[in-house]
């Protein structure tokens, strides 16, 4: 196995996942509301979507890159609508009766929703293409190298989401239910704000 290539791909996945954004807010809120497993499942959805975009970048599939770029408007509209819907859901949700308790959610649903949300951001693929271009890893010479890149990207991204979910879960035991509700509502408002900014950027 080409260990340096795998580690480089892990770093790419970690760097793409780490910046705070709507996905990070979803992971944090779901961890507070439903526990570390649901929060991590949400993060895995983003990691899987990152791996899909990473595969396109690693293989240098320019036709798919152009297709996603052409679909910027509908993808942005769908992504904005999903963020607003999720934000409203956060505003309406109630925290557990005690900080030590969690409301168990569907891991599959958490994974699928964040996977779809991440895929609706056409700028993600451009970020991967740009990173690969800088590192000289675009259009890898073999399928095995591309697979190694995709695996590394997924691993690096998943590692970030695991650390975030575990860290938030460890801290939630020190929060009282009113604070959990406040944090959930704040996250909901921020998600709606992200969605509005995303939609406004279309006509700016």
Summarize the topology:
Blueprint: H1 3-17, H2 22-34, H3 36-59, H4 62-70, H5 72-92, H6 107-119, H7 123-135, H8 143-172, H9 177-203
InterPro entries: LeuE-type (IPR001123)
Membrane topology: Multi-pass membrane protein
Protein name: LysE family translocator
List the total number of helices: 9
- Uncertain ranges: 98-102
Name the average pLDDT.
78
Strand portion: under 5%
Class from helix and strand fractions: mainly alpha
**N to C succession of SSEs:** HHHHHHHHH
Name the helicity range: over 70%
Question: How would you describe this structure to a colleague?
Answer:
This is LysE family translocator. It is found in: Cell membrane. With 204 residues, this protein is an all-alpha fold. The protein has one domain. Helices cover 81% and strands 0% of the residues. It has 9 helices and no strands. Helix 2 packs across helix 8 (143-172).
Summed up:
81% of the residues lie in helices and 0% in strands. With 204 residues, the chain is mainly alpha-helical. It has one domain.
Write a concise keyword list for the protein shown above.
flat, single chain, 204 residues, mainly alpha, 81% helix
